[in-house]
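Fold these two proteins, one after the other.
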Amino acid sequence: MAKGVIRSDLSHFYEGTASLVIDHYYFTVRYGELSFEPPIKSGVYANPISGEVEEGRILGYVKRTNYRIPMLHFEMYSGEGKGPLTVRSNKPTQRRHDLIDPTAWLVEWSKVPACRAEPASLSLFGKAR
């Protein structure tokens, strides 16, 4: 993913997993269903002074939930909204109004050779724990 700044450090997300929010300058992403295991502790994946994250840095590991299927929960926001990303009153998604469908972005990124991970690895996020 692109260079960015940690906007919200690790917090509890779902079924014992963590989430991490990074402002990637042109958009904001909440990465969810992550493990609390290293390298996802403060200062390990980011510059401890500025909170900056470099492109290509491992942010953490996907964690298995009770469903036993490891997956990365990926929420992308335009950045136009303010406040918390989870808004229980916004049905049906319960997310802030600037939540966007990341499909077009993901398709474009998949065309860039540097963005493609090897099939056996999850180079952006490491292997499932």
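Now the second one:
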Amino acid sequence: MDATTQKKFDEVASLIKQKEEIEERIKNILNPEPRVALPDDFSIKDNVLTIIQDSGSDGISKRKILDEIRLKHPKVKINATQVGSSLAYLKQGKKQITLDKGKYTALNAV
């Protein structure tokens, strides 16, 4: 096989590899991550509020809230976005918590 033929084969192999990588990226974009269903008796909002109330007037950070939920419920997959959504709901919608210097406190503990 001469050099030009080998070069063509290498180019075709490279293009095939690129095609496979592109198809994989397209598949990842089009197929969302599977959602994990929470148990029926589990409420992120209620757990977040309980943890904040238990922290007293000292307050607690978002990260510590997430860590405590993960410790108490290791089989339930919780992420920071879900905790953040619950905090926003409790702060803005229900007006049950406040945020001061990165610490969340329950209004009845202030």
